[in-house]
Structure formats: structure tokens, C-alpha cells
Specification:
With 481 residues, the chain is an alpha/beta fold. The chain is 46% helix and 11% strand. The protein has 19 helices and 14 strands.
């Protein structure tokens, strides 16, 4: 993934300016002044219009009045920073409202202009903002290129949420802070961990990974910390643990939520003091290891249930990063799908196939419970099954397809969804039945999306844990949580 403005010589048109001003005459004057210097200007009259342009046009600089007829300049600033924390925002304000401009700068604005705005001053400030944006983009691109040369995985996608994750990754990589990657299974947390390592000053050191859920509890301690000769039956030689192997590098603790409670104290000590003893040993070993952990569980819930130590949770989540599920960034599905098609065609020595429009529609409509991993497996299977130049929906074999080989869409007219609803009785009776059915389905869906984790499901539904448990009982689905 590349950030905007990554070429060696970038024209000013690569850095559009979003101008938010409700007075037509002033907005026209400022636009003409900027266009005279070669800038591309996108105009908005209020906050809702500005937010729409932010999402659609991805400007590199935002110039906004603080007083707007609908919303405010502070609202524009917050929306810009939520979309892209590095977005440069300059605010304009009347002379008597300088304290508002100071508030805006505390919230991340680059600078402010007092009205009446001097066009030359405006152009100078915009060009300074663009120069800062260009330097940041080129710096991040150089880091990415260097990381790729060192073997960093390529992270594919252009979604705004993914961009934010990558920016967080860059910031975390420059430090030695412990990072906690949270996200559903299949979102690529190990990929992000490897990228973080390759972007960090430890890139020349080892990257050592261990899946805490895949190793029996009786063996996990020796895998992590090693053992001395004779420590137990079968320990015929001394063995290094993963903490030692990752010295001057990065240790990736995958599925940290499955770490046995008995081992958590020793992990905490190793993180805090950077020292430990091998199993069966008495000598303290000191290591210089950066730890990145990952989980698909809601660790706060595990802490509340006393299944995970609170002190270890806080030690691990110094720099938490949430990797979004694939269904939350649907715009990246065709990009990822085409990438996987090219990759598997190359691996299988087949001519590069194309995805039909119908296949792309099915990919976009599917919820991808297995996230990027499931999409990758789906495309690999489709490439193998395809007997022509184009991948069709039948090659995808997605779970929502109609049994018997028919297409999920277009084979027959779907039944009227209202035909099965009981509308008898009073209006209040009918509304109650419909509301209960919608609530039952929504609760089930939230529980499925949260992989059975009730706390996460309650958080997604924005209800209390106690209220969710009661609803599960009311609808007879308590056992499925």
C-alpha cells in the first residue's frame, strides 16, 4: 500500500486543496488565488459537504472557516483527522475569535489565518502544508521500500481504515513499545507484525513467531523460555527459547489470549525486566527483545472474567492497533482479489485470468467471516477450477450460493419477505412481533460476528453485557453464546 504523493516529482495537482467557506465571494477569491498558483481546489459550503468531499476526493490540505452555516470548522477538522491523522488542516477565523483557532490547533490543526485573509499569505501557508505532506509521504514510502527490500510483506489495500492502521504501524515501528494487534481471525495480524518488524530499527535482527494456542500448555513454557539439560525426562541438551532467539529482534506472540494463566506472570516479568530463567535453570538471562502480541479475543472481557491478568493486559497494550475485518473495507475486496488471481496464476503457471463482473459482485456481496484468509483460499480454488480465461461466479463456490448450482442472484425471483410475517391482530401486536424477530436476528448476527464472545457482541450492539445475556435467554439462544 502506498500513501498519496509517493513519486519522486509530484505535481501540485496530486495534492488537491479542500476549501470550506460559506461566503461565495470569499470562496471564489481564495479559489482563484490558489488556482493561479497551479493548485486544484475542491469547494464546500458547510461541514456535511466537506465531509463528503473528504471521503471521496482525499485532499492533502484542508482550508476551512471555523464558523459554518451547518456544522463547524472544528467538525471538519475532526472528520479530517479521523480519516487521515496526517492530513494538514488550516483554519480561518475572525480576529475576535482567535481563542477558537487556538482550540483548533490543540485538536491538530496545522495553523490558522485571521480574516480578512491575505491571498499571498494563504498561498504561502498552503504550499508549506503541501511541502510537509510531500515530505511525510516520501519518508513513509522510502521506509516501505526499504522494508520490502528487507523482506517485509506487502499490505494490499486503499481503504481509509487500513491507511490509519498503516500510519499507526509506522509510528509504533519507530519505537520499542510493546504492540497489541487486535482483530478477527484471518485479518492478517501476523502480516502486520512482520511489516512492523521490517519498518523498525530492529529489522536486521530476527523475527520469531510463536502461536500460543497451537502448543500444548505443558510444552509452551519451554518453547518460550527454553530449558536446561536434565530439566525433565527427555531434556538431553540445553535448548534456547523463543525469547532468546528473538534477541535484538522481534518476538511475535500470536493468539496471546490463549496463554495459560500460570504462564502469564512469567511473561509479564520477561516483558518488564527483560530477564528470565530457563526451565530447570537458576541463571538469570537478559534479552533485548521487542514483543508484538496478537489476539482475536476481547482481552478486556477475559480480564473481567479473570482468565487474563490485568497487569499483563496493560503491559501488552502499550500501543494497541485494531486490524479491521474485510467486510469493513469492501472497497479493498476487488483489489485483493485481483492481486491473489495474479499471484496464483503465476504460482500455477497459468495465463493471468480475469474476474467477471458477476464474480466481482458476488465477492462484494459476501460477508467474509474468514476475512482475507478466506478470500485468498477462495481465489486460489477459483484459479484452479477455472477452465477458461475468465473466473465466473460458479468457480468461487461461496457459501451463500443456492444449492444445486444455481446463481445466488438472477436464477429465480426471490419470495416477498413480507409474505411470511404475521400481521394479524392490532397494530401494536404486529409491531411487537416484527420488532422481536428483528431483535432476535440482530442478536444472533452480532454473536456470530463476535465468534461467540458475548462482551464483544454487547459492545457491537451498544447494550450492556447483562442486557445481552437477558436477550439470549428470552430468545432461547443462550447456549449459542
Amino acid at each position: 500500500m502506498s500513501l498519496p504523493g509517493g513519486s519522486d516529482k509530484v505535481s501540485l495537482s496530486s495534492f488537491p486543496v479542500l476549501l470550506v467557506e460559506d461566503k461565495d465571494s470569499l470562496r471564489t477569491m481564495l479559489r482563484l488565488a490558489l488556482e493561479a498558483q497551479g493548485h486544484v481546489v475542491i469547494e464546500a459550503r458547510d461541514e456535511p459537504e466537506a465531509v463528503e468531499h473528504l471521503r471521496r476526493s482525499r485532499p492533502a490540505v484542508v482550508l476551512t472557516d471555523l464558523k459554518l452555516p451547518s456544522g463547524s470548522g472544528l467538525g471538519v477538522l475532526r472528520a479530517a483527522k479521523e480519516l487521515d491523522p496526517e492530513l494538514q488542516v488550516v483554519v480561518m477565523t475572525a480576529y475576535g475569535s482567535i481563542h477558537d483557532a487556538v482550540t483548533a490547533m490543540k485538536e491538530g490543526a496545522m495553523d490558522f489565518l485571521a480574516k480578512p485573509v491575505e491571498p499571498d499569505h494563504l498561498v504561502l501557508m498552503v504550499e508549506r502544508a503541501i511541502a510537509q505532506r510531500r515530505m511525510l509521504s516520501e519518508y513513509l514510502l522510502l521506509k516501505e521500500e526499504l522494508a520490502e527490500r528487507r523482506g517485509a510483506p506487502r499490505i494490499i489495500g486503499e481503504d481509509g481504515q487500513l491507511r490509519q492502521v498503516l500510519q499507526q504501524l509506522h509510528r509504533a515501528a519507530a519505537t520499542d513499545a510493546t504492540v497489541l494487534l487486535e482483530g478477527e481471525s484471518g485479518t492478517g495480524k501476523e502480516l502486520f507484525a512482520r511489516a512492523l518488524h521490517a519498518l523498525s530499527p530492529r529489522a536486521e535482527g530476527p523475527f520469531v513467531a510463536i502461536n500460543c494456542a497451537a502448543i500444548p500448555e505443558t510444552l509452551l513454557e519451554t518453547e518460550l523460555f527454553g530449558h536446561e539439560k536434565g530439566a525433565f525426562t527427555g531434556a538431553t541438551t540445553r535448548k534456547q527459547g523463543r525469547f532468546e532467539m528473538a534477541h535484538r529482534g522481534t518476538l511475535f506472540l500470536d493468539e496471546i489470549g490463549d496463554l495459560p494463566i500460570g504462564l502469564q506472570a512469567k511473561i509479564l516479568r520477561a516483558l518488564e525486566q527483560r530477564q528470565f530463567e530457563r526451565v530447570g535453570g537458576t541463571t538469570l538471562l537478559h534479552v533485548d527483545t521487542r514483543v508484538v502480541a496478537a489476539t482475536n479475543k476481547h482481552l478486556k472481557s477475559a480480564v473481567a472474567a479473570r482468565q487474563f491478568r490485568e497487569d499483563l493486559y496493560f503491559r501488552l497494550s502499550v500501543f494497541p492497533i485494531t486490524v479491521p475485518p474485510l467486510r469493513a473495507r469492501t472497497g479493498d475486496i476487488p483489489i485483493l482479489a485481483r492481486h491473489f488471481v495474479e499471484r496464483f496464476c503465476r504460482d500455477l503457471r497459468k495465463p493471468t485470468l480475469k474476474l467477471s463482473a458477476a464474480a466481482l459482485e458476488e465477492l462484494a456481496a459476501y460477508r467474509w467471516p474468514g476475512n482475507v484468509r478466506e478470500l485468498q483460499n477462495c481465489i486460489e480454488r477459483a484459479v484452479i477450477l477455472s477452465d477458461g480465461d475468465v473466473i465466473q461466479p460458479r468457480h468461487l463456490n461461496l457459501s451463500f450460493r443456492v444449492p444445486g448450482g444455481g446463481e445466488a442472484a438472477g436464477a429465480q425471483t426471490p419470495p416477498d419477505p413480507w409474505s411470511g410475517i404475521d400481521l394479524s391482530g392490532t397494530l401494536a401486536d404486529a409491531l411487537r412481533r416484527v420488532t422481536e424477530e428483528v431483535e432476535r436476528r440482530k442478536v444472533r448476527q452480532a454473536l456470530t460476528d463476535a465468534a461467540g464472545d458475548r462482551a464483544r457482541a454487547a459492545e457491537a450492539l451498544q447494550v450492556s453485557y447483562k442486557a445481552l445475556v437477558q436477550k439470549l435467554r428470552d430468545y432461547g439462544i443462550a447456549e449459542s453464546g
